[in-house]
Amino acid sequence: METNQFDEKAINALSVLLENFWILRADNPALYQMVREREKVLKRYVDEKMGFDLIVHQHFIKLEKIPVDAKNWMGIQTFQEPRDYAIFCCALAFTENRSVDEQFLLSDICEDIKDLYPGELPLDWTNYSHRKSLVRVIRQLENLSLLKVVEGEIDRFATDSEQEVLYETTIYARYFMRSYPKDLFSYETKDEILAGEWERHEADERRKRVYRKLIMSPVVHREHEDDPDFAYIRNFRNRLREDLEEHTNFRLEVFKNAAMLVADERKQGMTLFPDQKGITDVAMHAAAYVRSQESYQSDEMGRIRLSRIGLEELVDHVKECYGAGWSKRYREATTKTITDELTEMLKDWEMLERDSLTNGYMLKPLFGRTTGSYPHDFNGKEDVAIEQKQ
């Protein structure tokens, strides 16, 4: 039943659209139907506030989510090196040239990828590293439902380049790539592609930039004294808060140097901080320690600068204070191992970045917003509950 009201179903539908690349009717008919029933109000909202296109197809629904800035965490998490992405693009070119339900062998796509591959050094499927890249790519194509396995197992290809797998192309293969304002070959950099997105949103670019940042990123930091996007958030915080709370499952929090959307309760399908991983316990304890020590001084943007040695010293202090309650893995891990994992996790959540001038690190304002401490009756046992504080 269609409605013109942005009701609870519309809020949940928007959440599903934001959290998923697309909704396939064959896999999730109930979700597909829920979005279809709220199609009009959803299209109007995402276009007006974010400038996103909602594509409703008889086989799938897809919200085209274009970020303001490309972030490391936006990549395909299973890919490990640039070669994976290059092979992925070649594989997409292969699938787009195949008819729906057309069957082909793994050796067919291997040959086409070799011919299309743009690297200075050619691909060699006798090279184990190259085969592993292909396995990661094929797995991703399967996960996205661009390819369907008819017979065989791709993992065997990693150990034997003569292994065959029979695939067929799905209807979704030709819809994976989004359309661009102009010919893709006319762009030379990713920044040009992102800049081209705003040619059709010139009249209300600022509002849509702010909504995209708030919706798609863990945090919007004030990057400099006259940051126009952050100034917009501060000036219109009440209007933004009211609108976002009415149309999403989040509420807006605005501080001097950071703004973010916060979920008051966990909902299935959301990616939230903190999660159940042990490294987030380390991160929250590190934040609590930094906030308790006057020696850590922030600059006017709320950033704290640390060298690699300083970061490892911080980990040592935090482990000494809180490590008794960490999981066995982190109780026994070396300082270097913990520091490496911590920095990668904090970078993904935009709580830390590398300082290109000093090659050190900057802890960003979001880092200090969520801290962790033990209950008063903590007795040092493993897997103790963490008390989260905002």
Automatic annotation (TrEMBL):
This is TIGR02678 family protein. It holds the Pfam family DUF2398. It comes from the Bacteria.
